[in-house]
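Troubleshooting: if your tokenizer reports a length mismatch, compare your output against this known-good record of 450 residues.
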Amino acid sequence: MTDKMSFSISRRDFLKKTTLAASVLAIPSIVPASVFGANAPSQKINLGFIGVGGMGMQNIKGFLPKEKVQIVAVCDVEKESNQYGGYYTGRDLGRAPAKRNVEKFYANKKNIIHYKGCDAYEDYRDVLARKDIDAVVISTPDHWHVPISVAAAKAGKDIYCEKPLTLTIGQGRVLADVAKKYRTVFQTGSHQRSSGLFRNACELVRNNRIGQLKKMHIQIPGNNCFCQPAWKPMEVPKTFNYDMWLGPAPDAPYHKQRCHYDFRFILDYSGGQMTNWGAHHFDIAQWGSGHDDSGPVEVQGSGEFPTSGLFTTCTKVNKLTYRYANGVEINVRMGGSDVMFEGTDGWIRVSRASISASDPEILTSKIGPDEIHLYQSNDHRENFLECIETRKDPICNAETGHRSATVCHLGNIAMLLGRKLKWDPARERFTNDDEANRMINRAMRSPWHV
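Known-good structure output:
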């Protein structure tokens, strides 16, 4: 889909301008539908999807039924493959299946045999160049999150980007600043914030229903993928643009376990379960303890890392502790999947399936009108769409996503170095370790940059 007239403005730009004008003048306006471009106008938000493998396909299925959305583009360096691992083993994923799924959905919805209107691309820059696309959903491997998000913000797109938001702490600071500068509506895919269970737990903690918060205990699952101790390079599939997949990451010989779902267990592209599940649970710890714009001041840990094979991320957390400036601590271990808040008068434990407390009456306690009420979202994707229209911040904006990812990265750095590190969350620097500071950023393969 393309603009019919070169002088038309995007729906996103129009909303920015009319929202601002309405707030200043409070005068209703009548605007011809033609200013919104070819698709119609005021009722649809045109979405492009960048990265349509496992999570990308789930995001497509999540956004497709929403009436205010029109999916007009999908993009992936993989044309089609059933070689994805992890939760997605055996599924046909890539840009060709994504295009088919989108067009089949719209054909069924319109009760027609064929629908054409979703274009497929190999290069994300082709998506960002389209003037009719209001927002993009980024579900690539982690090492691509920031470069694509920064480019999208500069291209005037609103952004929904999957967690963990960043590959490095330094990249996260760049992204948060760029999103703020360009007034981008940015939603990080840390969707537990849009769960009533997690919001309820955090509100109870923030309002001292367990007394003064002292400790938080986080459990993250163990690795769900494994590789052999020895491996050999493989031939790149003809349907896969491997050089583009690597992008800013170091050049490396192809192996199927380097890509698709398994990428998350290689430090060049991700941070293992510390960033995969940690991005969810550390995010809740930050929210419940009131540190969305800050972070811990100290971290110490030890873990086990592979000594052979392709994978390089932590396989076991032996001990990992954080301390905030107010004395609150986080203790981390592998094996489960929940967050426990411990206070002077009790505790609350919350997971995706349940919430419990030391005293059941804690959970039935009502939050009064003059107490702390946290941002309420009951649908993470819908919250993003609503914010595109209102120009308000979503529940997990770029700054929040960056801060939560930083806690994950701090843990990995501490375990890799095996010593206590002191962190300044305001300056976002280590105060006692030059080697750790060199791990805040990583070199990027030319010509990629942020």
